[in-house]
Amino acid sequence: MAGVLTLIFIISCLNLLLSHRCSSHPLCTNFRAPFTSKTPLSFCQYNGSICCNATEDLKLRNQFKSMNVSVSACASVLKSILCSRCDQFSAELYRIDSAQRTVPVLCNSSISTSSSQSQAKVDYCAEVWDKCHNVSIINSPFALQAKGGIQINSTSKLTELWQSKGAFCDEFGGASDDGATCFTGGPILLNSSENISPPSGICLEKIGKGSYLDMVAHPEGSNRVFLSKQAGKLWLATVPEQGSGEILGIDEPNSFLDLTDKVHADAALGLLGIAFHPNFQQNGRFFASFNCDKVRWPGCSGRCSCNSDVGCDPSNLSSDNGAQPCQYHSVITEFTANSTTLNLSLVTQIRPVEVRRILTMGLPFTSQHGGQILFGPKDRYLYIMMGDGGGSGDPYNFSQNKRSLLGKIMRLT
Ligand SMILES: *[C@@H]1O[C@H](CO)[C@@H](O)[C@H](O)[C@H]1NC(C)=O
Ligand SMILES: *[C@@H]1O[C@H](CO)[C@@H](O)[C@H](O)[C@H]1NC(C)=O
Ligand SMILES: *[C@@H]1O[C@H](CO)[C@@H](O)[C@H](O)[C@H]1NC(C)=O
Ligand SMILES: *[C@@H]1O[C@H](CO)[C@@H](O)[C@H](O)[C@H]1NC(C)=O
Ligand SMILES: *[C@@H]1O[C@H](CO)[C@@H](O)[C@H](O)[C@H]1NC(C)=O
Ligand SMILES: *[C@@H]1O[C@H](CO)[C@@H](O)[C@H](O)[C@H]1NC(C)=O
Ligand SMILES: *[C@@H]1O[C@H](CO)[C@@H](O)[C@H](O)[C@H]1NC(C)=O
Ligand SMILES: *[C@@H]1O[C@H](CO)[C@@H](O)[C@H](O)[C@H]1NC(C)=O
Ligand SMILES: *[C@@H]1O[C@H](CO)[C@@H](O)[C@H](O)[C@H]1NC(C)=O
Ligand SMILES: *[C@@H]1O[C@H](CO)[C@@H](O)[C@H](O)[C@H]1NC(C)=O
Ligand SMILES: *[C@@H]1O[C@H](CO)[C@@H](O)[C@H](O)[C@H]1NC(C)=O
């Protein structure tokens, strides 16, 4: 499971999950989690949990130098603004979820009652204006953000772009509010009672794009995982080391397994689960759970789960989302990764040859079919999770009916 666990690690506060009044959580502007640097940064005065490495620190230093700011009071303010990229809360300071910013949100004097930031009262925006408004800055980050574009070596003063402090702070000022922080010139400090002390919450590190429905670790126990998309493809991917700055290594055009000709996917149906036999490395056995359409694939044909054994009359069912009752099925099936390559760690692509069909069941409605499959880590049996079959409130009471496989967790023995 090591591969899976590196995706999620623990940083923030449990409050985030449990209460409405949540406090800020650490995240860098590149969507990655902050890290602890072994050596202190030489330019930016940030230590502990931070978002800059030595390379980025040097870049900020060069950027600062190139601004050629002669007034020292303004220079020191500009330096802290550039260095706010290194703050462990930089994602919030730069509001990365809503805007392209080159300047963090500068605290103005308003205080939000829900603020968890201890310095949020400071009117830092006014301070920046007072110290810098009449100072020439080359490639000013303020001008860059206001113009939304790149200017090469152009010099500007704040007064040339904004008529007054008010206009300037309308653009750059902001309050510390629900779950977000604002900048007051130095590292963000939270009220001590809400100090973030791991491990009591989670922080997610974004390592790639795309929407995958299922992820399982490669049974070889490496940092490789299998990722599947609902439409029916499965990829072998390499999870980068935590804090390495790399992204998920996935070869999108070359899937490990392609079941799209068998799988019926729509909002609630598709390839739903993959499970590898505990002895996969020796026997190459693995299992898939997916939905199919009997109109499209001859292999998709099983008994309707609404039948006389469970006291359900299929003629009572009406069509759902344009599909006839039991047109779609749940399938649990076994494949083999055996190939001419003897070492299964080296297999990167397999032909979807079914070895054994475990279950094919017609579905009464088009939603709520569960579909995850897992091997019990201790008993090593295969568990199959089946939804109640859909329809508002399980109208045929399949879940309570012990003769129905719907609404059950089944164990294969
Ligand atoms: C960071 O530096 C400040 C002073 O510069 C110091 O008081 C603090 O203990 C340092 N924190 C860590 C985690 O090293
Ligand atoms: C610093 O981080 C950047 C990405 O943010 C990365 O490209 C670079 O390799 C890192 N440098 C070091 C020395 O770790
Ligand atoms: C930097 O500023 C100084 C005076 O403040 C000026 O003499 C010099 O030409 C400036 N450098 C650039 C590259 O603009
Ligand atoms: C945090 O501290 C500030 C200033 O000390 C205070 O105004 C604010 O109410 C505090 N926030 C919380 C949530 O305690
Ligand atoms: C702004 O700077 C210019 C010189 O660069 C100076 O003549 C002017 O008096 C300054 N204005 C203010 C309000 O400080
Ligand atoms: C901008 O200024 C820097 C430093 O003076 C110089 O090295 C660079 O060539 C200039 N770039 C452009 C596009 O003029
Ligand atoms: C501070 O910023 C907030 C958010 O942008 C705004 O609603 C408020 O009016 C500002 N307060 C002042 C005093 O500028
Ligand atoms: C895969 O190969 C192994 C070793 O030859 C064999 O024991 C196993 O039965 C094969 N698995 C399947 C599903 O054919
Ligand atoms: C199913 O149909 C029978 C006969 O048409 C009817 O008596 C019964 O109430 C129906 N059951 C449901 C759940 O609609
Ligand atoms: C299979 O290949 C992997 C990756 O090259 C290697 O680490 C492993 O030792 C090989 N296993 C066997 C049994 O040859
Ligand atoms: C399902 O169970 C509920 C509660 O026991 C009952 O009221 C309802 O009539 C049952 N429906 C069917 C179709 O058996």
Distance between the termini: 24 Å
Bound molecules: 2-acetamido-2-deoxy-beta-D-glucopyranose
- The chain-level mean pLDDT equals 85
Give the full name of the CATH homologous superfamily of the largest domain. TolB, C-terminal domain
CATH C-level name of the largest domain: Mainly Beta
What fold name goes in the CATH topology slot of the largest domain?
A: Neuraminidase
Q: Which spans of ≥5 residues are poorly predicted at pLDDT below 50?
A: 1-22
Q: Gyration radius, to the nearest Å?
A: 28 Å
What proportion of the residues is helical, as a percent range? 10-25%
Counting helices, strands and paired strands, the structural category is alpha+beta
What gross morphology would you assign? elongated
Quote the beta fraction: 15-25%
Largest sheet, if any? 5 strands, antiparallel
Whole-number total of structural domains: 2
Total number of strands: 21
Count of helix runs: 10
CATH architectural name of the largest domain: 6 Propeller
Domain Glucose/Sorbosone dehydrogenase: 223-413
Organism: Gossypium stocksii
Pfam families: GSDH (PF07995)
Signal peptide: 1-24
How would you describe this protein?
InterPro entries: 6-blade_b-propeller_TolB-like (IPR011042), Glc/Sorbosone_DH (IPR012938), Quinoprot_gluc/sorb_DH_b-prop (IPR011041). This is Glucose/Sorbosone dehydrogenase domain-containing protein. A hairpin with a 4-residue loop joins strand 10 (224-228) and strand 11. Helix 3 (54-66) runs antiparallel to helix 4. Residues 1-22 have low confidence and may be disordered. The chain has helices at residues 2-5, 15-18, 54-66, 72-83, 90-93, 124-132, 141-147, 158-161, 165-172, 280-283, and strands at 8-9, 35-36, 49-50, 106-107, 137-138, 155-156, 173-174, 203-204, 214-217, 224-228, 233-238, 249-250, 257-258, 271-276, 285-293, 303-304, 328-336, 354-362, 370-375, 382-386, 408-412. It has 413 residues and is α+β, with helices and mostly antiparallel strands. The strands form 7 sheets. Strands 9, 10, 11, 12 and 13 form a 5-stranded antiparallel beta sheet that branches. Strands 14-15-17-18-16 form a 5-stranded mixed beta sheet. It has a 3-stranded antiparallel beta sheet with strand order 19-20-21, with no helix packed on it. The chain is built from 10 helices and 21 strands. One 2-acetamido-2-deoxy-beta-D-glucopyranose binds next to loops.
